[in-house]
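Forum: Protein Structure Q&A
Topic: Joint prediction for protein chains with partners

I've read a bunch of threads here and the consensus seems to be that you should model interacting components together rather than docking separate models afterwards. I'd like to see that in practice. Below is the full input, 644 residues plus whatever partners are listed. Could one of the regulars post the assembled result?
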Amino acid sequence: MTAGTDVAPVVEARELRKVFGPIAAVDGISLDFTPGRIYGLLGPNGSGKTTLIRLLVGLARPTSGTARVLGTEMPERQVLGRIGYMTQADGIYADLSVVENARFFASMYGVRDRTAIEEALDLVDLGGRHSTPVEELSGGMRRRLSLACALVHRPRLLFLDEPTVGVDPALRVVFWEHFRRLAADGATIVVSSHVMDEADRCDELLLILNGRVLARGSGAQIRETAGTHDLEGAFLRLAGRAAPAAEAPPREAPPNDREGAAS
Amino acid sequence: MNVRRVAAIARRIANGFKRDHRSLGLLFGAPVLVLLLLGWVIRGQSSPATRIAVVNEAGPLGAVIVTRIVDAARTGGLQVVDIGASVDSARAALADDRIDVALTVEPPGTPGSTGGPVIELMTPGVISTDDSLHVAAVQRALADAVAGTGAPAVVHRVLYGSPDPDVLDSFAPALIGFFGFFFVFVLTGVSFLRERVGGTLERLLATPVRRSEIVAGYSLGFGLFATLQVVVILMVAFGSLRVPAIGPLPEFSAGLGIANAGSPALAFLIVFLLAIGAVNLGILLSTFARTELQVIQFIPIVIVPQALLGGVFWSISSLPDPLQPIARVLPLTYAIDGLRNVLIRGEGLASQTLQVDLLVLLLVAVVLIVLGAATIRREVA
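Posted by a regular:
Agreed with the consensus. Here's the joint model:
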């Protein structure tokens, strides 16, 4: 929580837990996100980032605890119209064209305004490829289209699950410029990543391990706490400190990453 | 329910088809091809003259009978082959495929005798359908042999359908129902599996869309294609457009021109209800598949029993007793029965059996819609 602000939080979670069989994918996470900032969920594969996002989006029901998003307790269908969600998989239709995909998701969000669709496509630089079938797009272009489909309804809150995986460094810079611009317009952005070097672009980081928040703060704050020069080292050091205290045995990744809990 | 969202989902299915020429071919080309091929095989079946040999084992009395049989066979269009006068040579001729049926006149006292001599027919027994064709031909000839001797003649008439028996007439309604179910099931199953595996369903569920809208959109989208498919099949099956000779092509008839007694609109309604059921069965079963191949693996479980028990080949009442109740819970059974009622008997909505057929199909569709919709949320719970 950013102390001293009286702005209502966009996302508010209290002791969120999600248990899959013997594994707690999310193990008591509380957080508050305020508008206009970029939050980074940082952690290795299987640490619970995707499950946390799915709880916040309302795609999964928490085992215990509560998540309030835009003032409404999740899961709630109506709120989804104001949330954008870019999944880890591209989640676009390979047998449709670029513009057909954008229009399809716009219809799902109840957007009739064609300019919003154009705007989203222009933003990811696909404005000139309207009728190209997705099958013929490169991986980076698909990623961009996937982002555009999460933006067609101009959401106030944007969840991006590993948005830059498989994206080349030049495009990564472009993506982050978009994110910064959207945040400047007042949108709240939650980005998950396991790439430490892009984490420094976030306003605030949450280091996540074994379904718990290990540390939070800006990149500089976290490095300082851990007494290291880079985030990677900070992560390892903080994880090393946390593990014996929590007596948490090293967890195995769930057998099926797609359907399973955490990734 | 938001109509725009339903329409958008249906449109996205149609747009997907637009680029997927192979699926379009499967949906429209395959049934037409099968139907035409079947029509050709059944109608153009050549029945070559039955070749027989007659052997006498019953002395002078037998010789009289042999003469009469040979005369009747010749006038009946059968080919009488001279293979010598022993049973062994007749067997050898059968084995070498020089004759189709060996007739042996056995003396009275042979098992099966009713006091007079016995005519024994022997066939190769390799392809039973061929055997029955040949035996039937021989029996017709033998009946002609006794005609005019005071024995009663038998004439066959039919209550429904064409007086000239055409297997295709009873096959066509069954095939229309079968295709309506089969292709829609496979295409929906694969399509929805892609939604689940490709992450688009996850994404879709992160929008304010309702489950009912997804199910309705899918039913509408695939229902539309199923409907178009039925139109094409009905036209091929019942149409009889004469195409005149053009250049080197001889004159031919587009469509099989199968006799059709009932309302195409009712046939349509039956197949539409069946297709809605198939769409939702596809959605339901795509939950239990991980790959497209696994959707195909449902065919022997879901499709083949319906083809065997649903009345495509054999009527329900001719099935073994334990199988009859099973046949009566299969949707295809009711679709085929309904289609036969409409297309062959020419029945309308007033017919009680047709009402039952429609009601059961509606019920099956509703149950499958509920079950299919239930699997959509389970994925994300």
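Residues 133 and 249 of chain A are 47 Å apart (CA to CA).
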